């Protein structure tokens, strides 16, 4: 049984596609309420690792417990206890703002009363009450992404996976989005986030950096900068990425 303060325990988690090892025996733990940054260049294996941890892809070998559930035997329970927001946009463009919220809430089996009350609260928090009946495709990208995040944590999961959540949005919206991430973590939701913006790595409690399918570094941003004699996470990342032998995908 997993200890209460560990939301992810991965032990030598591996994924192979034929002769290619996409994720190579990674081991790490993520604590409850932590903002955990999962970094790496394109092709490093981040998305493959995230798909295994979220129950969407079966590992080749290794072990992992996510939200208290085994990724081989209980991956359906994992899916019910996590949120997931992918960089390839996760809302339905031809549904309204309110319909999107209700659709996703319904998937998780929440009561009508819970859905009704929480929908109103989310719309107020996002300042979208006036846009509730507008189609999602009519919203600016930044609003869409904030809505997608709110939908991903609507059912109050233990853990949310965010795959490049701020890609393509302006700096102001990125800051607002990170404010939402901090609020979610403060409420007890663990945040597992991939990003290619190195300044965002500074906002994480701890950061792991993948190179060629392996975790090459894992620590607080402060400690990583010290270890690699670097003035920024950008510099840490470049020092590690130079060792990569894989081409970017």
Give a description of the structure.
The chain is globular. The mean pLDDT is about 90. The chain has nine helices and ten strands. The chain has helices spanning about 45-55, 75-80, 95-105, 110-125, 140-150, 170-185, 200, 220-225, 235-240; strands spanning about 5-15, 20-30, 35-40, 60-65, 70, 80-85, 160-165, 190-195, 205-210, 215-220. The chain is an alpha/beta fold. The chain has a six-stranded mixed β-sheet with strand order 6-7-8-3-9-10, with helices on both faces. The chain starts with 5 loop residues before the first strand and ends in an 8-residue tail after the last helix.
- Average pLDDT taken over every residue: 89
- Compute the separation of the termini in Å: 37 Å
State the low-pLDDT regions, or none.
Answer: none
Largest sheet: 6 strands, mixed
Secondary-structure content class: alpha/beta
Which outline best applies?
A: globular
Content of β-strand: 25-35%
**What percentage of residues falls in helices of 4 or more residues?**
25-40%
Supply Rg: 18 Å
Number of strands: 10
